Each structure stands twice: as C-alpha cells, then as structure tokens.
Amino acid sequence: MAKNVAKQANPKRVAYEKKQQEKGEKVIKWIIGVLIVVAIIYAAYSIWLVS
Fold first, then answer.
1. What pTM value is reported for the model?
2. Which of 2, 9, 22, 48 is 20 to 30 A from 40 via CA?
3. 41 versus 51: which is more confidently predicted?
4. Where are the alpha helices (DSSP H) in 1-51?
C-alpha cells in the first residue's frame, strides 16, 4: 500500500523538480548575462581611464 502512495506522489514530484530545474537554469543565465555586461562596462571604463 505504501508503494501505491509513492507512485501517486511521484508524478507531482517529477513535475516540481522539472519546474525547479527550469527556473534554476533561467537564474543562472541571468547571472552570467549580468556578469558579462558588468565585465564589458568595466573594460570600457578601464580603457577610458588609461586614455
């Protein structure tokens, strides 16, 4: 009987894990994008200071 309960809860858990993974990937992409933009701004600022 415990196995039946686990099987019924499993699809919800799988869907939740998939949803969390997609959100996590989205956050990682945003973080990397922001870091790249900050690096470009810093490089431009450094070049401006030197010249």
1. 0.68
2. 22
3. 41
4. 2-50
CA distance 38 to 24: 21
Q: Write out the two tokens for 33.
A: 């994008």
Instruction: State how far the Cα of 31 lies from the Cα of 25, in Å rounded to an integer.
Output: 10
The Cα–Cα gap between 46 and 25 comes to: 31
Q: Which token pair is 3?
A: 């196995």
Token look-up 């989205």 returns 26
As a whole number, mean pLDDT of residues 25-49 equals 97
Q: Given pLDDT bands bounded at 50, 70 and 90, which one contains residue 2?
A: low
